[in-house]
Amino acid sequence: MLFGQEHVKRYQETDGAEGHDWQGTTVLLLTYTGRRTGKKRTTPLIYQEHNGDVLVVASAGGTPDHPQWYKGLQADPDAQVQIRGDKFNVRARTATAEEKPEMWKKMNAVWPAYDEYQSKTDREIPVVVLERV
Length: 133
Description:
Oligomer: single chain
Pfam families: F420H2_quin_red
Protein name: Nitroreductase family deazaflavin-dependent oxidoreductase
Distance between the termini: 33 Å
Largest sheet: 8 strands, antiparallel
Number of helices: 4
InterPro entries: F420H2_quin_Rdtase, Split_barrel_FMN-bd
CATH class: Mainly Beta
Organism: Actinomadura adrarensis
Shape: globular
């Protein structure tokens, strides 16, 4: 099973032929700028398309703190996405309180553990909207 940087490497080498379909769901690669280092970082994330945008969830498995990629996007919302062989630029934003329920439901439908992750932490787990630019 692919995971972490091995997942990123195989996804990039095969244009997502290996790594896009993962544990019954779909995964993209998000490349963002690290907020402390300024270096580009790439992470695989479960995603869903939604009204022309792409949704991801900053769950970190329900840990008490947001994932590093989310903090990086808060500092610099301009990033790149790869879905299979399609690579494009995005601007990230956190879903509004009005948008989130529908988006959460859509994401939880493809990865039901999101509800469990939310129950494990006091922080509100954000849904992130990646808008093509």
